[in-house]
Amino acid sequence: xxxxxxxxxxxxxxxxxxxxxxxxxxxxxxxxxxxxxxxxxxxxxxxxxxxxxxxxxxxxxxxxxxxxxxxxxxxxxxxxxxxxxxxxxxxxxxxxxxxxxxxxxxxxxxxxxxxxxxxxxxxxxxxxxxxxxxxxxxxxxxxxxxxxxxxxxxxxxxxxxxxxxxxxxxxxxxxxxxxxxxxxxxxxxxxxxxxxxxxxxxxxxxxxxxxxxxxxxxxxxxxxxxxxxxxxxxxxxxxxxxxxxxxxxxxxxxxxxxxxxxxxxxxxxxxxxxxxxxxxxxxxxxxxxxxxxxxxxxxxxxxxxxxxxxxxxxxxxxxxxxxxxx
Length: 326
Hints:
Elements: H1 5-26, E1 35-39, H2 46-62, E2 66-70, H3 77-85, E3 92-97, H4 98-107, E4 119-133, H5 142-151, E5 157-160, H6 166-178, E6 183-186, H7 190-198, E7 204-208, H8 209-217, E8 222-226, E9 252-259, H9 265-279, H10 282-290, E10 294-295, H11 300-321
Parallel strand pairs: 1-2, 1-3, 5-6, 5-7
Antiparallel strand pairs: 3-9, 4-7, 4-8, 4-9, 4-10
Helix pairs in contact: 2-9, 4-11, 6-11
C-alpha cells in the first residue's frame, strides 16, 4: 500500500521541524535572559564599584539585566569557582583581576582552577593605590614609616583587601624594598580592612584609590604616597613611592571580564563590543575619571597579553617576597 500525499507531507514536516528548531536555537540572539556578573570580593571595594558601573551600562546596551553577585573569599578563588560551576553559556561571567588571573597561581599551592583556561573577554579599567596609615601613628612620610618599622620590628600590622590583591602585593613589594618586618592581615575586601585601619586594628594599608580615596579626603587616614609611576593629578601633593626613596616602585591594579572555557563566541564578542562602546562614551569616561580609574578596552587578545605580562611581573615579586597563603 502506497502512502498517501497527506502521510508523506506529515513525514516531511516531522523531519524538517527538528532541523528548523535547531536552527532557531543556534541563531537566537544573545542575550535572551539576565546575565550574572560574579565579583570575587566583598561589596564596597574597588572591584564592586567597577562591576556595578559596567553592569548598569551593559544592562542598557544588552537590553537585559546584568546582575552583580559578590562571592568573596580565598583571594577571589571562590568567585572564580562559582563562575566555573555555572553553565558555560555566556549568562555567567566574572570580574577578573590581578589576583585571580595573575598572582594567585603563585600564592596558593593548590589553586582550584587553571587561570590560563579562562576566556579573556575585555579589559575594563586600571588604577593605582595609596599607602596610608592610621593618623595616630607618629609618621608623616614614607621614610619616617620605614624608620619607625625598623625601630619596632613586628609591631606594625598591614591590612589588605585579600591575599593576592595589589593591596597585598603592593605591601609585599614595600617590605622587600625596605627590609622591614610588618605583619600582613588579609581581609575579604577593602571595606572591612579600611574600617580596621581607621580603628587602628591595623596601622597601615595599600589600597586602590576608588576605595581608600574617600578616607584620605576625609582625613580618617593619612596618605603617605601613591604607587603609580607619576603623581596623580587628583592628589598632586602626595608623592610617589619612587620619589619617596623606593626607586622604581610601581604597582597598579587592573581588571576585566572573563568567561568559562566553552562559552559561545557570540557572547564573548558581543560583550567585548559593548564594553568598548561604553568606554568610548564621554560621560562614562568622566565617571571613571572621578573615581580615579583609567579605561582599558581593546580586544580579547589585548587583555590576554596584559594578563601574561602581569603574571610574569607578579610571579617574580612573589618569589622575591616569599609570600605564600598555604
